[in-house]
Design goal:
35% of the residues lie in helices and 18% in strands. The protein is of the alpha/beta class. A 7-stranded antiparallel beta sheet has the order 1-7-4-5-6-3-2. It holds the Pfam family UPF1_1B_dom.
């Protein structure tokens, strides 16, 4: 098994390294999903507005965190009744949340649903190789199709030394665009620089407006070249957020999503291809066939053929006439855009995508590539440990940083209270983050919580309760910390904070599930208030924010291991989600065994923010730490040290 390297001799060499790793990850994913069968499932049947049957049921493996489920996943329901075995396939349209632990599965038409049967079902994952096939196909295109990418991008991706190219294009007189906030100096520098380069990296630290910057870049590219820009991200949520921002600039945006996700509502459903098809003017025959299908649930074979012909033509027209096409990275391999060439490609959250995933949108004729992300935050999720060890968990963005392409860093943060941004800025971003918000703008009017230090809405609350293995046997929980988190949540709610202003973060699924359960059991307020508080992992909160964050660290043991918390990037994400206030609950003696956590605890101690005691009588903790002269995390979050960023004045 080859491991990923920095430089490749040719596209064939590149393919020979990455293709086996894609296969490794695919096989691991298949085995994991095919092992997730659950028996003796009880189903409640319903019929949706589109006349399709929807099965609602509980999957204990999902609610206990042993099984990951996403909207759009395909499941197979089976049952035996009256001597006959029935099976049907559907797409997940609802996943368990804090309000309901049921899964909603929309069945495909023509599956002959036994809606009078409710007991004795089994549920299987239907594994699809589509995403992995598209990654392999992207590598093959790079090898076999000369025009798949431009020469400068080809050389940069392979790590072959080449001269920097400055593209001669007419720059806009004004970089800020209508419909979006005015750009700051570092954003203007990023936009101006990116427009003139064939390949660019933009580093967007937390709250620095990378989505606004990206939307601005896309607007200018669409206007300069008058051809569709391809905008991608590894997650559907990130694609939706960017599509909405780009739409605000007045461009014609088409959101292309997998057919398996067409029944799932999103904030930008009105931009989706299937929605725009439905409301096209002048397509009377298509409209009538759509209406007939809605009313009857399915069409005759003749009508179905005619419907598909008309729909395919309209899809082609809409896509070719769009200013911007937005989809996930893997979605860029959709057959509906396979024949289109995209001169300009922007990939948001590129540091959360594997390199082959990033290549799917790149090999459609890319001449100008912009990768946006932050290699100081969490990277790609690779399930197969062997593939991860071989380097599949390194993003293309990170490898290009190693090769000497310096990211353009956005430098003004608009999310956090200035006191909250101080430690992350100094430790993860060399002190470069400036505050675009004042203390007054991040002090919540009427919220009368007494912070240990009036001008610093943050503290570390010492909690010495022991960790234990969770019920699933695969995770951890800490009852003392859960009780303290509930006390904090109740206090915040009593002081007038809305549930949607509070986020509870914990690195362990066992603790997440226990906190949800404990707040329902021990919380003294209306149970629904606690249900509306989001409790999630650090990874689930990446790219998001809340007014107040409560962080439960969980680990508290005699052998002093801290597991997940050992990753500096995970700590960076956890510390940078809050706008108005952050409270960390944990055992400092255990956490201080890790150097970065010790730096954080020393910071809190020196600022009188390390406290102990009951919530109503907190006092400064007497716990002492040995101060060391460790530099500001010179590994700069694992990959950051491998290449410095350009600053806002353009110094190289």
């Amino acid at each position: 098994m080859f491991t990923i390297i920095c430089r490749y001799e040719s596209a064939s060499h590149y393919q020979s390294i990455f293709s086996p790793l894609i296969t490794l990850e695919a096989e691991y994913d298949r085995k994991m999903k095919e092992a997730q069968t659950q028996d003796n499932v009880t189903v409640r049947w319903d019929i949706g507005l589109n006349k399709k049957h929807v099965a609602f049921f509980k999957l204990t493996k999902v609610t206990e965190g042993d099984m990951k489920l996403m909207q759009g996943d395909e499941l197979c329901l089976k049952c035996t009744f009256a001597g006959y075995t029935w099976s049907g396939v559907g797409h997940v349209i609802k996943i368990p949340d804090s309000h309901s632990d049921t899964v909603g599965l929309e069945m495909k038409i023509g599956t002959g649903v036994p809606s009078d049967v409710t007991h004795g079902f089994s549920v299987d994952f239907v594994w699809k190789s589509t995403s992995f096939d598209r990654m392999r196909n992207a590598l093959a295109r790079l090898v076999t199709i000369e025009t798949s990418v431009s020469e400068p991008i080809y050389y940069r991706i392979l790590g072959i030394e080449t001269e920097d190219v400055v593209m001669k294009i007419p720059l806009p007189k004004r970089f800020s665009v209508r419909g979006l906030p005015e750009l700051n100096h570092s954003q203007v520098f990023a936009v101006r620089t990116v427009l003139q380069r064939p390949i660019s990296l933009i580093q967007g630290p937390p709250g620095t407006g990378k989505t606004v910057t990206s939307a601005t870049i896309v607007h200018h590219l669409a206007k300069i070249y008058s051809s569709p820009v391809l905008v991608c991200a590894p997650s559907n949520i990130a694609v939706d957020q960017l599509a909405e921002k780009i739409h605000r600039t007045g461009l014609k945006v088409v959101r292309l999503c997998a057919k398996s996700r067409e029944a799932i509502e999103s904030p930008v459903s009105f931009l989706s291809l299937h929605y725009q098809i439905r409301f096209l003017h002048g397509e009377e025959e298509l409209s009538k066939l759509l209406q007939l299908r809605d009313e009857t649930g399915e069409l005759s074979s003749t009508d179905e053929m005619r419907f598909r012909t008309l729909r395919n033509k309209c899809e082609r027209d809409l896509l070719r006439n769009a200013d911007v096409v937005c989809c996930t990275c893997v979605g860029a391999g959709d057959p509906r855009i396979a024949q289109m060439q995209f001169r300009c490609v922007l990939i948001d959250e590129s540091t959360q995508a594997t390199e082959p995933e990033c290549m799917v949108p790149v090999v459609n004729g890319c001449r100008q590539l912009i990768l946006v992300g932050d290699h100081c935050q969490l990277g790609p999720v690779v399930m197969c440990k062997k593939a991860a060890r071989a380097g599949l968990n390194q993003s293309l963005f990170e490898r290009l940083v190693v090769l000497g392409i310096r990211p353009i860093r956005l430098q003004v943060q608009y999310r956090m209270h200035p006191a909250l941004s101080a430690f992350p800025s100094d430790v993860f971003y060399e002190g470069s983050l400036q505050n675009g918000v004042t203390e007054a703008e991040r002090t919540l009017s009427g919220f009368d919580f007494t912070w240990p230090e009036a001008h610093s809405p943050m503290f570390f609350w010492l909690s010495m309760g022991q960790e234990e293995i969770s019920g699933s046997g695969t995770s951890y929980l800490n009852r003392t910390e859960a009780a303290n988190i509930e006390k904090l949540a109740t206090k915040f709610l009593k002081l007038g904070a809305r549930p949607d202003q509070i986020g509870i973060i914990t690195p362990y699924e066992g603790q997440r599930a226990f906190i949800v359960q404990y707040m329902q059991f021990a919380g003294t307020l209306n149970k629904k208030l606690y249900l509306d508080i989001e409790v999630a992992s650090v990874d689930a909160f990446q790219g998001r924010e809340k007014d107040f964050i409560l962080l439960s660290c969980v680990r508290s043991n005699d052998n002093l291991g801290i597991g997940f918390l050992n990753d500096p990037r995970r700590l960076n994400v956890a510390l940078t989600r809050a706008r108005f206030g952050l409270i960390i609950v944990g055992n400092p003696k255990v956490l201080a065994r890790q150097q970065l956590w010790q730096n954080l605890l020393v910071f809190y101690k020196e600022h009188h923010l390390l406290v102990e005691g009951s919530l109503n009588a907190l006092k400064e903790s007497a716990v002492q730490f040995i101060r060391t002269n460790v530099q500001v995390i010179d590994l700069q979050c694992l990959a950051c040290s491998l290449g410095k960023s350009e600053n806002d004045c353009g110094t190289q």
